[in-house]
Amino acid sequence: MVNEKRWGKKYVDNRNWQEYTEKLVMRGYFYFNPEFLNKWNEELKQMNARKIGQPYLYPESMIKFLAVLHCKFDFRALEGFMRWLSEINKFNFPVIDYSQICRRYNALEIDFKILKEDMKDYLLVGVDGSGEKSTKRGGWMREKWKTKKGWIKVVILGTPDGKIIDIRIGTETLDERASVRGMIRNNHKKIKKVILDGWHDCRKTFDLCEQYNIETAIKIRKNAQTKAKGSPRRRKEVLFYKSMTHKEWVKKKEYGLRWPASEGIFSRQKTIFGEYVSAKKKINMYHEVKLKFWAVNKLNEIT
């Protein structure tokens, strides 16, 4: 029996299924749309201008195209795909070797810059952390052989419409609070409000937001004291939280937007691209995880 007092009214799915189905169809269009063929020569000309040494044979847009596909396929399969694409294409371009795909993939520079269309207004952002598996093998091996491969920890700064603005990646010991404060410092000029869960109910985070005049929607601990203890901003937020019910606070602070701005992005990334990496070296693992979230951003642009 559902506890209505705890969970509230039954969820009603008002989704536009025709629109949702079209978004899923566009994923396939995004994966296998080799737009780089239309600007191959122009892009190589720009890349090789004033370049010392052997010139590039393959444009960076092609490597980014393959980087997205690598979330689904290994490097050898990508070489096979490019061989097929070259055979059926009128340009009949030279086929890149899987080892070169790997080298260019690991050297690919990507960023999560705020798009120009998003620069018109100050951003409302949510922050959260999650883990990526460093291997496909599950808990049986850890229990049987007493080995621990470890997790890759990811902390993202996202918007309610699913765009990732900044990201931090490290081992499972990565300090999530410190990572969040670092991302706020780097992007404070365009942030209006940050929405954080109760783990970030600490004076340093409140003081940093006060310094940059950023609104906060940070869940307050139930046993929080109203004493300032060096942080007037946190005391003000605690008093505001205690002046009403939790549901009223959630509504006034728009705390519900934290899910699409953070947890929803993690859910989407793991559903589409999986939660494990295929790389073996730690630096390449971090790079692969970063590229997955970059691919989610690119996918978000068309769907």
Low-confidence stretches: none
Can you give the helix content as a percent range?
A: 40-55%
Radius of gyration: 23 Å
Proportion in β-strands: 5-15%
Task: Return the string of H and E elements.
Answer: HHHHHHEHEEHEHEHHHH
Count the domains.
2
Strands ordered across the widest β-sheet: 3-2-1-4-5
| SS elements, strand count | 5
Sheet/helix structural class: alpha/beta
Largest sheet: 5 strands, mixed
The chain-level mean pLDDT equals 85
Tell me the number of helical segments per DSSP (H or I, 4 or more residues long). Answer: 13
**Net shape:** elongated
Report, as a whole number of angstroms, the end-to-end distance: 37 Å
Description:
The chain folds into two domains: 90 residues, no CATH class; 187 residues. With 303 residues, the chain is α/β, with parallel strands linked by helices. The protein is elongated. Helix content is 48%, strand content 12%. The model has no long low-confidence stretch (mean pLDDT 85). It starts with a helix and ends with a helix. It has a five-stranded mixed β-sheet, with helices on both faces.
